[in-house]
Every structure is written in C-alpha cells, then in structure tokens.
Specification:
By secondary structure, this protein is α+β, with helices and mostly antiparallel strands. The protein has one domain: N-terminal domain of TfIIb (Single Sheet), CATH 2.20.25.10. It is 18% helix and 28% strand. Strands 1, 2, 3, 4 and 5 form a five-stranded antiparallel β-sheet that branches. Strand 3 and strand 4 form a beta hairpin. The radius of gyration is 11 Å and the shape is globular. The N and C termini lie far apart (21 Å).
Length: 60
C-alpha cells in the first residue's frame, strides 16, 4: 500500500483514520469496527464490502 495514498484515505463511514493490515490486505477503522478489503492493490471503500471486526481485533 502506497504511504501517500494511505495518508489521504479516510473511513467512508466516520471519516476517521485507517490502519493498513498488510497480512490481511485490509484497511481497518477501529472507530467503526470495520475492515475494508484491498483487491489487486485497490482499496474497496464501500461499507457493504467491509467486514465487521471481531471483538479481539477491536481490542488489539
């Protein structure tokens, strides 16, 4: 994930900060408890495509 792109992206729901999870290829919003997938190097910033974080993921 390009650091410049990550710096300008925000959560489409709350407009909060996103964290890049390299292992899972996701952008994570802890505020909303959502993870947005990255497919073929392109972040999919759609709420309906996001998965809900587990309780453990929210706490870590």
């Amino acid at each position: 994930m390009d650091k410049k792109l990550l710096a300008i992206l925000a959560c489409p729901v709350c407009k909060g900060e996103l964290k890049y999870d390299r292992e899972k290829q996701e952008l994570v919003c802890k505020n909303d408890g959502m993870a947005f997938p990255i497919r073929d190097g392109i972040p999919v910033m759609l709420e309906k495509e996001a998965r809900t974080l587990t309780t453990d993921e929210r706490l870590s």
